[in-house]
Amino acid sequence: MAVLKGGLSREKGGVSDILSIAFMFLIVVFAGVLLHSYRFGAINSAVDRQMQLKAEYLYRTLELSQVENYSLSYLGAVAENVIGVSPQVVPGDYLRSELDLLLSYLRPPGYAVVLELAYENSSWVQFSPKDVGPPAPDVEKFTFSGKFTIVIAGAGENRVAQANATVTIFKMG
For residue 135, which of 53, 151, 154, 170 is within the disulfide window of CB 3.0 to 4.6 Å? Predict the structure, then answer.
């Protein structure tokens, strides 16, 4: 039999060994209780940041992607309709239906999207899904806005028009 320092053999268990194992067990149980008390959900600020980034992503997608069969971006086509450029490259009814399809595909589940473009006295407001109205004042909203610029070629000179564009995401219900 192997003898350890001080004449103690390995087969004799000490009280300190039992106490250390008991304390480790208590620490594991306490850590488990703490983890469950804080839920496994995401931190609210992280969720808010993700939704803000999704609003920017929607805006950039509308700014850069082109309407099918036309060489014009979605925001460009809406801006032309709002500003009143004639002849319109993309008809308003077709654009509204295409935007509805795109927004219903891109919006996060459980959330609604509002696209707003305004120029002087005219505006374009589109909701996705269609049956959702404006968000209630107490609902948390995530917005991203910018300006969309169009150069309108005229007979004598070119004219620059800027439409204010805003994409808002909010939780439905």
Answer: 170
